[in-house]
Amino acid sequence: MTKKKIGILGASGYTGADAVRLLARHPNAEITALTANTHAGKAMSEVFPHFFMLDLPKLVEWEKVDWTRLDAAFCGLPHGTTQEIIAAVLKANPRIKILDMSADFRLRNKDSYAQWYGHEHRALELQDEAVYGLTELYREKVTAARLVACPGCYPTAVLLALVPLAKAKLIDVDDIIIDAKSGVTGAGRGLKQNTLFSEAGEGLSPYSIGSHRHSAEIEQEIGAAAGSAVTVNFTPHLIPMARGEFCTSYVKLNGATPDDLRAELEKAYANEPFIYVTKKGVLPQTQNVRGSNYVQIGVVADRIKNRAIVLSTLDNLVKGSAGQAIQNMNLMFGLPETTGLEQIALFP
Question: What positions carry a catalytic annotation?
């Protein structure tokens, strides 16, 4: 197969950089355009020195890219700026495949988007077209899509753990508590006081309590699986490590046992290349998936009667972002889903 020509919008951010890292060794991809308006004119190795060995195009403003020459574009821009840029790219090249790693096309309900993101959606015609890109749940739709809205890192970890259980009605979807923790790359690369080493190091900080925007994605997808509107209790925390994510979900059982939950998850993911359900007594750990596209899920019985604890972990920049986007790209181009994504976790 001829290599697909790839462009990356927002290549100077962490998700854009991880897309570069993974695509640089993808046998069917050729990175031909990298955009970053604030770093335009620079070599990628000036912004990310660990790319010193790669022959990459220089960073340019997105308006200067000839989008008609590209087969796919990955978008790592912040929410709010993405909609109009993607609309312009698709207008220039209606055949291009878009892998959006921002939040701008994840929510199906336009009113919900305005509520959570503070402004009306600026590309409603594309919002209706976008496919929610949680690969394991929407594989067929992703394969046929032109625009895929890749999920947030928290929703990916939570939904992979809970959607099969909600669909099988093994848990009470009106009683879900999610305790989530992410490395500081989840906050992006922009300079923020709370992510400075001296502020984030040696500490654990909750944020956006009761109001984190990823709640909307989680509720949208668990509600779709359960067939009813859902509200979850979701609290994220910042942990002092660069990458990684761990979600602990406390659930009430609907006449099931923790072993039933594990068995349902094992059945749901029996043929999935990247999802691993741990054996009874084996606990997922962030270090088991760091730098990889793999996900670990575990189930533990709670001391409280009729309750269980579901654990899930992934790398927020890989399966939680760039890796999942590449997994979706593979499907969209008819490639083996695992192409370019079988790296083993970095340990220690």
Answer: 153
